Amino acid sequence: MEGGNDSVEVRASGNGGGDGNGGGDAVRLEGVSKRFGDFTAVDDIDLSIPKGEFFSLLGPSGCGKTTTLRMLAGFEVPTEGRILLEGEPVEDVPPYKRNVNMVFQSYALFGHLDVENNVAFGLKRQKVAKDEIHRRVGEALELVSLSSRAKARPSELSGGQRQRVALARALVNRPAVLLLDEPLGALDLKLRKQMQVELKQIQREVGITFVYVTHDQEEALSMSDRIAVMSDGRVAQCGAPEEVYEHPAEEFVAGFIGISNLLEGVVEDAGDDGKVRIATGDRIPAPIPDDCSRGDTVQLSVRPEKIAIDDEVEEGMVRLEGTIEDRVYLGVSTQITVGLGGGARLVALEQATYRASADDRWEPGMTVALGWHPENCLVLR
Ligand SMILES: Nc1ncnc2c1ncn2[C@@H]1O[C@H](COP(=O)(O)OP(=O)(O)O)[C@@H](O)[C@H]1O
Ligand SMILES: [Mg+2]
To answer: Which ligand is nearest to the CA of 43?
Structure first.
């Protein structure tokens, strides 16, 4: 494994030392699959992650996120395909020689060491000079705003602070890629939101490529440059947050990224100015994708926040009437569920304004009009 030939000494090279191949990609997966026995956990994944990107793997539990991350780290060997880090294939590179580091949900700190020594641990083992250790640990602690707690034990820190120590420890030897497996999963909502902002700031500051695993769509949408949405071991869609949110490539992605508001229907006219007949009998104008034709069954998807309610429904919008079935007060908004007949229903969000709180107009049983601009209606097959 340590062979004396010109094999892959990725760790030392920092910038991939003139490999020529792989361009600016920090990470590349080419046709990567992982099977455990006859179960396929990761199914033929292709991904390219440019240097400096905040990239997320998003998907429900069991879809293969951790397995993908573990293959990047070298803890699992792909059954098929190739992994390149900074342009170099790494199948023969053991985990400790890969220029990557991993942060887990459980902080895995040493309880008997103080913060400073937790962060210094790896550098000491690599026999880095004392002065340099001191300097780099100082920088890393500053980065995560923990300089004042250098002498504290992990047991004296809050959950958020412990995760920052783990982050400092992972960043202290400046890996090319940082792998983060649901690092904020153990924190309560308020702290998680705060740490999301901090993590993103830290990533911008250090410019290290982050591969971030989460099952929380909001987290992925708010932090990432790009997201790969995974389902059953495959990548269902890969793109910028806006792209994945506004133009989900398939029903799974639409459903997973927030409320999908699906209405089933049959295409009656194809093309950009197409028409879809839904269960209520209404013909709904919608842009029909090129690969759909007359007679196809499709799902219409309208985001709750794109739906106008009652007096907000304007000229030029699709207009439907229905009965309020349910109302959920969410603070800054109220979510109302409207039954349209024939089993079809839509969820709309009414925002609070300076004039009125969000929930003071709607009661279950009321008849309301809903509307949306046809271009805000997505057609999924
Ligand atoms: N070592 C293993 N042996 C057998 N099955 C495994 C192993 N590791 C993971 N799996 C299975 O592979 C699937 C994907 O797991 P994982 O990558 O941990 O998913 P995620 O992180 O997205 O929740 C799951 O069904 C899991 O049970
Ligand atoms: Mg996992």
So the answer is: 1
